[in-house]
Amino acid sequence: MIKDKVAIVTGASSGIGYATALALSRAGVKVAAGARRMDRLESLQCEISKNGGEVFIQKLDVTIKSECDALADAVMKKWGTIDILVNNAGLQPLSFFKNLKVEEWDKMIDVNIRGVLYCTAAVITPMMNKKSGHIVNISSIAGRIVYPAGSVYCATKHAITAFSEGLRQEFSQRSNIRITCIEPGVVATELINTITDKALEKYVERIKQMEALQAEDIANAILFAVQAPNHVNVNEILIRPTIQER
Question: Which of 118, 147, 153, 203 is catalytic?
Fold first, then answer.
């Protein structure tokens, strides 16, 4: 049962984060939603409140450790516990390495890796203290398969897959903190709009025409994992659109 538990969801202003915050709230979870776009968070807050859920929103840039710590501290002050963390914030500006989009590489590394580390660090002590918790990291099929124009993005997602397994080995048996790594294939979100490499225009069009997964599909996978009985640790969920080959 996850009713009355407390969850932090990062990148909650759109896509998978927004859908996950709603799904958790409908299951009776108290949701703390963090993202950079406060107007989107306010819309989420209204939707959850209208449905009778409990929600707390706070501006969050996951690349700034003090903001990650501040969100966790605020949640502890408000509700006294942190039961679930969904590390969802991420970027996907795919590009061919030869085009040397260094600024985009840096942003991906900062958000996709450093942001996950910072947010996990912000909640791990409260979870260890009560010997209970669940950390859900959103990786990607790119955390298993490397493809052209994805070398840097894939590297960041391989890092999250490895980090998730390291967390499991360190904390699951010793501190009863379960770890789940979600690895989606193509999902219809804003991520693809961050691709600026003109050589990928045809790829982007093909993806937009694909019958992709919806954000709600990933939210349902997350719900499946966090609703499992305490003795069940759903370590990985790989989920692709039926039409996706690789």
Answer: 153
